[in-house]
Amino acid sequence: DVKVTQSSRYLVKRTGEKVFLECVQDMDHENMFWYRQDPGLGLRLIYFSYDVKMKEKGDIPEGYSVSREKKERFSLILESASTNQTSMYLCASTPVFGGGYTFGSGTRLTVV
Amino acid sequence: EDKVVQSPLSLVVHEGDTVTLNCSYEVTNFRSLLWYKQEKKAPTFLFMLTSSGIEKKSGRLSSILDKKELFSILNITATQTGDSAVYLCAVDLYSGAGSYQLTFGKGTKLSVIP
Fold first, then answer.
1. What is the DSSP letter of A79?
2. Is there a contact between A99 and B48 if contact means CB atoms under 8 Å apart?
3. What is the pLDDT at residue A44?
4. Mean pLDDT, chain B, as a whole number?
5. CA dist., res. A56 & res. A60, Å (int)
6. Whole-angstrom Cα distance, residue A5 to residue A26?
7. For labelling alongside B51, which of A2, A64, B25, B27 has CA 20 to 30 A away?
8. Residues of chain B that touch chain A, judged by Cβ-Cβ distance less than 8 Å
9. Of A101, A89, A83, A97, which Cα lies nearest the Cα of A25?
């Protein structure tokens, strides 16, 4: 089974801090994604990557950046955390030719 | 702009009822439609549909896609309290440069009461 592992289940950070959310998948998938999920808004795509060192903006990239230095790892970075970035963050991966997406368990980030 | 719309947004039924959840979409470069079930944490995969008119079935759940009318339905028969969850519909589409992305609907919250 494909595993997508997010390093933290819960995080509490202060406004202005730099925050790193890590995601690792173990099935050699080319595509990796970061979503955030908020009540009433569903899942929204922040960034995705289809290869090492490649990244594409999703629907809501403002305030975020990403890093994909190795195929298995996709990091989401909040340069200066703000309270409106309090959310559930989900990482997902898929092989280049599609198929079902596999999600990580999510990181619930609270910015105070 | 790519759009996925689910209805209803929430639904309360009694155990044993049959429910139908709807998902309509307007996207370019459609590749497939996926259904997920989300309880407390990450969504879990239910079905992927690529061809029109072919029903996918898993136990009491089934789903079908209509690519002409641009919608899909998810049916759950003989509902149980364990079916209570948010059901997410997503469309997998080609986003250029050899890459793909999912666009999600907002979900349907299903509550099954004993």
1. S
2. yes
3. 87
4. 89
5. 11
6. 9
7. A2
8. 31-32, 34, 41-45, 48, 88, 90, 92, 95, 97-107
9. A101
Mean of pLDDT values over A20-30: 92
Q: How far is A11 from A19, CA to CA, in rounded Å?
A: 9
Residue whose entry in the numeric block shows the structure tokens 């305030």: A63
**Around Cβ A51, how many Cβ atoms within 10 Å?**
15
CA distance B59 to B80: 12
CA separation for the pair B73, B20 (Å, rounded): 6
Q: What is the 3-state secondary structure (H, E, C) of chain B?
A: CCEEEEECCEEEEECCCCEEEEEEEECCCEEEEEEEEECCCCCEEEEEECCCCCCEEECCEEEEEECCCCEEEEEECCCCHHHCEEEEEEEEEEEECCEEEEEECCCEEEEEEC
CA distances from A44 to B87, B90, B92 (A): 15, 11, 14
What is the arithmetic mean of pLDDT over B84-111? Answer: 82
Of residues B29, B32, B34, B40, the one with CA closest to residue B6:
B34
The confidence score (pLDDT) of residue B51 equals: 81
Q: pLDDT digit string (tens) for A55-95?
A: 988 889 999 999 999 999 999 999 999 999 999 999 988 87
Average pLDDT over chain A, rounded to whole?
A: 89
Smallest CA–CA distance, residue B103 to chain A, in Å, is 8
pLDDT of B16 reads 97
